[in-house]
Amino acid sequence: MAKSSADDEELRRACEAAIEGTKQKIVLSIRVAKSQGIWGKSGKLGRHMAKPRVLALSTKSKGQRTKAFLRVLKYSNGGVLEPAKLYKLKHLSKVEVIANDPSGCTFTLGFDNLRSQSVAPPQWTMRNVDDRNRLLFCILNICKDVLGRLPKIVGIDVVEMALWAKENTPTVPKQTSQQDGGGPVEATVTESDLKVSVERELVSQAEEEDMEALLGTYVMGIGEAEAFSERLKRELLALEAANVHAILESEPLVEEVLQGLEAATNCVDDMDEWLGIFNVKLRHMREDIESIETRNNKLEMQSVNNVSLIEELDKLLERLRVPSEHAACLTGGSFDEERMLQNIEACEWLTGALRGLQVPNLDPIYANMCAVKEKRTELEKLKTTFVRRASEFLRNYFASLVDFMISDKSYFSQRGQLKRPDHADLRYKCRTYARLLQHLKSLDKNCLGPLRKAYCSSLNLLLRREAREFANELRASTKASRNPTVWLEASTGSSQSAHNADTSSVSEAYAKMLTIFIPLLVDESSFFAHFMCFEVPALVPPGGVVNGNKGGNYNDADDDEDDDLGIMDIDENDGKAGKNSADLAALNESLQDLLNGIQDDFYAVVDWAYKIDPLRCISMHGITERYLSGQKADAAGFVRLLLGDLESRISMQFSRFVDEACHQIERNERNVRQTGVLSYIPRFATLATRMEQYIQGQSRDLVDQAYTKFVSIMFVTLEKIAQTDPKYADVFLLENYAAFQNSCM
Fold this sequence. Notes:
The chain is of the alpha+beta class. It has helices at 9-18, 129-147, 158-167, 197-200, 205-216, 225-249, 251-320, 324-332, 340-356, 364-367, 370-407, 424-431, 434-443, 448-477, 493-499, 504-531, 581-595, 599-612, 616-630, 637-667, 669-675, 681-693, 700-724, 729-744, and strands at residues 25-36, 51-62, 65-75, 81-88, 92-97, 106-111, 122-125, 152-154, 171-177, 184-190. Helix 14 (448-477) packs parallel to helix 18 (599-612) and helix 22 packs parallel to helix 24 (729-744). The protein is flat and about 155 Å long. Keywords: Coiled coil, Exocytosis, Transport.
């Protein structure tokens, strides 16, 4: 027989070299053939392209613990062994010999820590059964001694394995520890010292001793097994006959026992009859007791239900009761400021009472009761009466407040004094009824429409009066000389000095108008939105610039006063900031009623400024654009529309000025033929200089459009001259182009 590769020392040294540096000791190394099995195909061995591999069993000691590994090594291109896979024997769960291999040399090793159990494990094929038994025997020994357990064994005859283990006792290295606590030393023991529990588990030690004792009573040779079997049969028959004889000899005793059993049966029958009688009586008594308990339970349940019913009725009556003080406030109480606390408490009680009689908050069983329906009708009447009284009072109250302010001239600008509108007192008085409006909204949303119209109508009169008086006094107090609107006609020295007159006070007056009234209109819009319970975002975000003037203000007398426009003071508990598109549309419609007509006074200021100096439209356009870019809140829609209309009107007035100037150029075409355009190239330079001085913000586009129009008209005029008199065409063009470049420089 060929020498087994397990005894190949050169192979062992090659394996040790391959795992050098791992501090592991090679226990056994053997050559195998690796193939990949195919699941579910019976009748075939399932090997495809077997590859040569080396299986090496190794151990590693770490203190008192020893770890065991199964290494798979493969041959590199140069024929040198190199590690391919590493398995830990502590995860070995099954050793199975492939039944389809008639030689019995092919087996698989199952590990319980493999990631994919759906892939068939590799199959290992040995050269012969001895090599297979030697490898498996070594694996089982290591699992028993190092790990203290054995994997599941499938397809191997354990008796055959035990016999093979007795006949083959090769030496295997074993790790032992020195008694003096030193490091581990390597000792050589036989495989008989490491016998697998397979052999020991066939029969127990006690069973083995009993069998040896039984066999020892019979002195027979090895070939007398048949005689031994016949002897055992005869002795068994003798024992059975002796047992039957003993039973027949005990017949008198059996008869005595039968008589005793018959007497006992009679006693049992009598006892059964008595027990039947007692059972009937007990059944009757049990039925009576159950009937009594049923009646008692019904009475007890009725008593408990009566108590619960009384408690529920008391709670319901408490809900249905209308406190006299609240009823008095709701039907005929005063709405004076000192009585508002009682009115608010009555509103809160009425809102809670109506909500408490609704099905989600009231048991549906009570909802159809006559008393509940009647009480709900009574509360609805109270609500209608209170809403009508409160709405009528608030409409009259708004009108009286505004009438009082309009009748007092000290609230408005007067001759020689510009008065900044102050609505702090008006808002303070309105805030007194803010919570009342919120409760009116919760009671009846439809009542807010007439109230909003009444408030807008009254306040609109006040705002238009303030704007008109302020605009009139602003124009009267502004001193500025009027500049002519004709810039490109022939001018004398006196008119040239008029062109240079300072008209900055016109722009300042327009800016003052915006500075005073645009924040006022935004604040009034914000106050109105929250005061009249519109569910919209805040009009002016915290820290936002409302007036578009970051550098200063134009307050004449009240620079340090604060209007205290914190609308959230109306109800600090109302933190809703959700945007409601329907409320936003209704708010913009109401703001149109609130602020409509005030734009006429702004238009009057713009027209007045245009008459004094048309070029001031450039600076007013930039001021308006700055304010327009500061209005970003969705609910300030009317203010943005007002600023947009102002910007459009200013642009229209400036376009009117540009058109008139262009018309002057076209009208003076006859004089240009005689004198050339040199006469008003300098005047155009003066005009351009003034226009550049007035540019603010986004007004550059406005000026550039004017430049384009002026230059286009001038060159069109030159082209007409050239067509009329070709003799001077080149002279005119070169002369005027050079002059125009010098003026632009």
